[in-house]
Write a structure and sequence with these properties.
This protein has 634 residues and is α/β, with parallel strands linked by helices. The chain has 26 helices and 19 strands.
Length: 634
C-alpha cells in the first residue's frame, strides 16, 4: 500500500522539509518499506512505498522532479489500461507490460496535462505542481478505495492520502468539526458538507474529484458524472446480463492480474459470492486457489432461537459452503472472532480511521478479516461492497411499465407499488409528512442514539425532521437519482477501505464499483433489474445462473451483519461497562453524548432477555463516538 503527501508554503514561516517530516511522523507506523521526499524552494511531496507495487523496469524515484518542466509529481495506485495507454503515449511496444503505473501516470500527465484523467482506468491518485504557472493539481480516480485529505490556511496548502499526515502538520491545531460530528452521529443531513471531516478545516477530496490550488485559492470540482451516460434499451433483459457480465469479468481480471497474492471476502450474499466465484474461476486457469475470508456467528445456538431469523439470514455459513462447493477452487477460512472483542474492534477502528463510523458494531469482524488476511501474507483482498449500486441493484418497482404479467404473477406487489404507492405519493404526500412527523425513522434514530438534547436543539435537528426525510428519500420518479445516491454514500466506504488497507498493508479492491461497470449500470433502464414475474435484483441472478447455486441466488431474506452482536456484547459486558465508566469523566464526551442515558440503557439491556440488534447497534455507535471525543478532545 502506497501513500502520498505534500506541502506548499506561501511564505518562509515554516520549512517545507519540516512539514514533510512532521507529516511522515504521523504515517510512519503504517507498514511500508521506504519513504522519500522531493522539494523545491516552496513545495515538497512525500511518498511511502510498500515496495511491492512497482515493476522492476522504470522504477523512477518517487516523487519525481523534472527541472526542464519545473514539474514536481507524485502518485499512487493502480492503472488497469497500461497497454492501451502506452500505445497512445508512443512508448516502446516490446516493454509495455513492464511499465509501472506511476511511470505511465507521469507520462500521461506530461502529454495531456489535466485532461489525462479522462484516459485513465483503475484506482489512483496523483499530485502535480507546475513551477512555471505556480499551480498545484490533484486528482482522484472515479471509484475505488482511495482517499485524500487537505488543509489550507494563510501559510500554505497541505495534502495526504491519510488524514494522519494532516493532523501532524506544525500549523494545525486539532479541533472538532461539531456540525459534521452531529450529522454523522444522528444521520441528520449527512449529505451536507460532502467534503467535511470530523476535524475543523480538514477536508476530504472524494473519488471523481480534482482540486486546483492557484493564487492561494482552492477550487474543487467533480469531473465524472456517469448519470449522463447515453442510455441503451434492449427487448430482452438477458442482453444486459450478458454485457455486464463481460464487464464484470474484466473488472475482476484487472484486479487479480500480476504477481500479488489474492484473496477475497465471502459473506454468502449475492455480491461477494459473484466476486469470489468469478475470481476463483479466473485463478483456476493459473493453477491458483482463491482463499476467502468469512465472518460467521460465534453464538450459533442462541441465534437459532432469535426472532430476527424470520426476516434475515442470521448464519450464512451454509451459503458460503454452497459457493465453495460450486467453485471447487476456493479455500475457505471461517472466522468467528472468538478472541477479538467488540470493544477492541471499535477502539482499533478509531486508531485506524482516526474517526468513528456509523457501523461501529461491525468493526471487530471487519478488522479481524483484514488482520487475518495480512497475517496469511495476502496482498490484494477483493470485496463486493459496491454491488448494491451495480450488479445487484434492487431497482424501483413503482417505475416499471404497467404489465399484465406482473399483476398475474404477483398481484399484491403490483397493487402496492404501481397503484397504492403512486397515489399516496401524489395526493397525500404533504398530509402524511405532517402525520408521520413524530414517527419519522430519522427522528426516531436521532433520539435513540444518545445525543445530548441541547446539541440537537443547537443544530436545529429537533425542528427539522420533515425536511430531513425529504433529503434522505430519493425522488420517486427518477431512477438515476436512486443510483446516484448510492455512489455518494459509497464515498465513506471508500475512505474507510483506504485507511484499513494502509493500516494492514493490504490493497482492497472492489470489482463491483469498477468505472466501466458503473457507467454501464447508469446506461440501462429500471426494467433490467426485474424479471417477468416482478422479482427484482435479477441482473446478478441472470449473470450467475448456473454458476452460483440457486439457494444462494434466490434467497429472499437478506443476511444480517454481526447477527449475534447482542449475545457477544453481553458476554463481554465487563469491557463495555469499563468503557462507559471511562467516558463518564470525559468533558468532551458528556457535552455531546448523554452518558447517563447511555449507561442506564446499558444496564437495562444487560437484564433484558431479548434486545433487538438495532438497539445494541445504536448504543455501540454512541459509545464509539464518545470514545473518539475522549481520546482526541479532552
Amino acid at each position: 500500500m502506497n501513500l502520498i503527501f505534500g506541502a506548499w508554503h506561501y511564505n518562509n514561516n515554516y520549512s517545507v522539509d519540516l512539514s514533510l517530516q512532521k507529516m511522515y511522523n504521523g504515517l510512519r507506523k503504517l507498514p511500508h518499506q521506504g519513504h522519500a521526499f522531493k522539494t523545491t524552494s516552496e513545495v515538497g511531496f512525500g511518498h511511502l512505498s510498500s515496495g511491492s507495487t512497482f515493476s522492476q523496469c522504470h522504477r523512477d524515484d518517487r516523487p519525481v522532479y523534472l527541472p526542464e518542466n519545473q514539474l514536481l509529481f507524485v502518485s499512487q495506485g493502480r492503472i488497469d489500461n497500461i497497454s492501451q495507454l502506452t500505445k497512445k503515449l508512443g512508448l516502446d511496444h516490446e516493454t509495455r507490460t513492464s511499465y509501472s503505473s506511476d511511470f505511465v501516470l507521469l507520462q500521461a500527465y506530461r502529454k495531456w496535462g489535466r485532461n489525462c484523467i479522462s484516459h485513465l482506468r483503475g484506482e489512483w491518485c496523483f499530485a502535480a505542481f507546475d513551477g512555471q504557472t505556480q499551480e498545484l493539481f490533484i486528482a482522484q480516480s472515479p471509484t475505488g478505495y482511495t482517499a485524500l485529505y487537505y488543509y489550507h490556511d494563510h501559510n500554505g496548502f497541505y495534502f495526504s492520502s491519510s488524514i494522519k499526515g494532516i493532523l501532524q502538520i506544525p500549523n494545525y491545531s486539532k479541533q472538532l468539526n461539531e456540525g459534521h460530528f452531529m450529522r454523522q452521529l444522528t444521520l441528520w443531513g449527512r449529505e451536507d458538507g460532502a467534503y467535511d471531516t470530523f476535524y475543523s478545516n480538514v477536508f476530504s477530496l472524494p473519488p471523481a474529484h480534482t482540486t486546483i490550488i492557484k493564487n492561494r485559492t482552492v477550487k474543487v470540482e467533480k469531473y465524472w458524472n456517469p448519470q449522463i451516460t447515453e442510455k441503451r434499451t434492449y427487448k430482452k433483459t438477458q442482453h444486459y446480463a450478458d454485457e455486464i457480465m463481460e464487464l464484470f469479468v474484466a473488472a475482476v481480471q484487472s484486479r487479480i492480474c500480476g504477481d500479488k497474492s489474492v484473496a477475497s471476502t465471502l459473506s454468502g450474499g449475492l455480491d461477494s459470492s459473484a466476486v469470489s466465484y468469478t475470481a476463483a474461476e479466473l485463478l483456476k486457469r493459473q493453477n491458483t486457489t482463491l482463499t476467502t475470508f468469512s465472518h460467521v456467528p460465534l453464538f450459533t445456538s442462541e441465534i437459532l432461537q432469535d426472532i430476527e431469523k424470520e426476516k434475515s439470514v442470521l448464519d450464512e455459513t451454509p451459503f458460503i459452503h454452497d459457493i465453495v462447493n460450486a467453485s471447487g477452487n476456493i479455500d475457505s477460512i471461517l472466522l468467528n472472532s472468538a478472541n477479538y472483542s467488540v470493544l477492541n474492534g471499535m477502539i482499533d477502528f478509531l486508531d485506524i480511521y482516526s474517526a468513528p463510523a456509523h457501523g461501529a458494531c461491525n468493526a471487530y469482524w471487519l478488522l479481524d478479516i483484514y488482520r487475518s488476511a495480512a497475517q496469511k501474507g495476502v496482498e490484494v483482498l477483493l470485496k463486493g461492497e459496491g454491488g448494491n449500486g451495480s450488479i445487484s441493484f434492487a431497482g424501483a418497482p413503482h417505475l416499471l411499465p404497467v404489465s399484465i404479467s406482473a399483476f398475474i404473477h404477483n398481484p399484491f406487489s403490483f397493487f402496492k407499488s404501481r397503484i397504492a404507492k403512486p397515489v399516496v405519493q401524489t395526493f397525500f404526500r404533504n398530509y402524511l409528512s405532517k402525520r408521520n412527523h413524530k414517527k419519522s425513522s430519522l427522528r426516531k434514530y436521532a433520539f435513540n442514539v444518545f445525543a445530548q438534547p441541547a446539541r440537537l436543539d443547537q443544530h436545529g435537528i429537533t425542528m427539522d425532521f420533515s425536511a430531513i426525510d425529504d433529503i434522505q428519500r430519493p425522488s420517486p420518479d427518477d431512477i438515476q437519482q436512486n443510483k446516484e445516491l448510492f455512489l455518494n454514500l459509497y464515498n465513506v466506504r471508500s475512505a474507510i477501505g483506504a485507511a484499513s488497507g494502509q493500516y494492514y498493508g493490504l490493497e482492497l479492491r472492489d470489482p463491483t464499483i469498477d468505472q466501466d461497470l458503473i457507467e454501464y449500470f447508469f446506461s440501462i433502464p429500471n426494467e433490467a433489474f426485474f424479471d417477468k414475474h416482478f422479482n427484482n435484483r435479477m441482473l446478478v441472478k441472470q449473470m450467475m445462473r448456473g454458476k452460483i447455486p440457486d439457494r444462494v441466488l434466490f434467497e429472499k431474506r437478506k443476511g444480517l451483519q454481526s447477527a449475534d452482536i447482542v449475545y457477544r456484547v453481553k458476554a463481554q459486558a465487563s469491557e463495555i461497562s469499563a468503557a462507559i465508566e471511562k467516558i463518564k469523566n470525559s468533558t468532551a464526551a458528556s457535552y455531546y453524548i448523554d452518558i447517563q442515558n447511555l449507561n442506564d440503557t446499558w444496564q437495562l439491556y444487560l437484564h433484558q432477555p431479548y434486545v433487538e440488534p438495532y438497539q445494541m447497534q445504536n448504543l455501540l455507535k454512541a459509545l464509539q463516538f464518545a470514545l473518539f471525543l475522549h481520546t482526541n478532545f479532552d
